[in-house]
Amino acid sequence: MSIRAAAPTRREQILSEAARLFAARGFHGVGVDEIGAAVGISGPGLYRHFAGKDAMLAELLVGISERLLTGGRHRVAEAAGDPGRVLSSLIDGHVDFALDDQALITLHDRELDRLREADRKLVRQLQRQYVELWVEVVRELHPEVGEAEVRVAVHAVFGLLNSTPHLAALGREATESLLRRLAHGAFGALSA
Amino acid sequence: MSIRAAAPTRREQILSEAARLFAARGFHGVGVDEIGAAVGISGPGLYRHFAGKDAMLAELLVGISERLLTGGRHRVAEAAGDPGRVLSSLIDGHVDFALDDQALITLHDRELDRLREADRKLVRQLQRQYVELWVEVVRELHPEVGEAEVRVAVHAVFGLLNSTPHLAALGREATESLLRRLAHGAFGALSA
DNA sequence: CAGGGCCGTTAGCGGTCGTTAACCTGAGCT
DNA sequence: AGCTCAGGTTAACGACCGCTAACGGCCCTG
């Protein structure tokens, strides 16, 4: 067996290219032929791997939401009992994610409404649980701030961290460090 | 002549409804029939007012960008010489805008690529000038921070302020005040 | 009251898009 | 060697969509 990561399966190739294209031109703006061409097959060939175009988007969005939530839970458990460290870890994780998977971040809040009812509900539920991780730890750090306010602040910081797609070049590490500082600064202003 | 604001023209009605629909379902996801129906006429009737669907989006995006830039310049001139007050004023203005025109804010960074080359260039140029207003004043307040870093921070704070569309209810004034504090907090972390 | 814009209407055209159908091919197993 | 099946191919269908054509009513003006 190889030491290197396994070669991506055809399914994974398709998902990766679809994410890129959806992020660039919007779900409705990309045709199946184009997605097929991006992985070297023709449009209808995709139907050997996915039930339809919708299914690709659904799998992408559910996948992101699950990865975010799982990662978040891991970090919360790891630093449990130290809210400051938990928040830092959540921020670090989200920054990494935003910088590694810009296309997915873009899709995540842009194309949710294109999903079938059932998938949309699932994604929203996962998102809600992820937000809840943040809200809980921020509330521990700022007990005097109301829950609704904290929830808004968390969403706002997501907006800040997810701004990644429109960033000028600055080098990976510098950008990471800057985004972390900005996020901490925003939360710090909660109890000023 | 009436004291009340003039009734919106048909053109303005169309633009307003188109903005709402584009924001909700994406440019490609909305048909002209639907836009027409939203103002009480049928699809092709729109062509008495606009050259095409693209023209509506173009007018919306150029309009937003111009209003942001004009408002920003006004505020810069008004408080010239006091960078702290200028930044606060820019933040206030942007918060008001984001809360008043959520649909436009959404379109502004989501559907830019659907424009014809010429319009897209114009919008980008206006956006760049607006960003520059912010970058200049933030640099005055944090002279030790590099320009690239400041530019990233400004974009990130835009992301924070523009997160408005996914906000839980909290009352207009409370939301305004919170967003302002968060933005100031983020910028404050620039030279920590 | 005649005439001409303004602002609608409906019908329909041309193109695109997601999806299905029918067929093909090469690798692997028996 | 022959069967199976995963994973492609091209052709074509049906729906939809942006837009134009052709037409009509209403209001304002001379």
From TrEMBL, chains A, B:
Residue ranges flagged as DNA-binding region: 31-50
Transmembrane stretches, start-end: none
InterPro entries recorded: Homeodomain-like_sf, HTH-type_TetR-like_transc_reg, HTH_TetR, KstR2_TetR_C, Tet_transcr_reg_TetR-rel_C_sf
Keywords of this entry: DNA-binding
Pfam families: TetR_C_24, TetR_N
PROSITE patterns noted in UniProt: HTH_TETR_2
Residue span(s) of domain HTH tetR-type: 8-68
Name the record gives this protein: TetR family transcriptional regulator
Lineage: Bacteria, Bacillati, Actinomycetota, Actinomycetes, Kitasatosporales
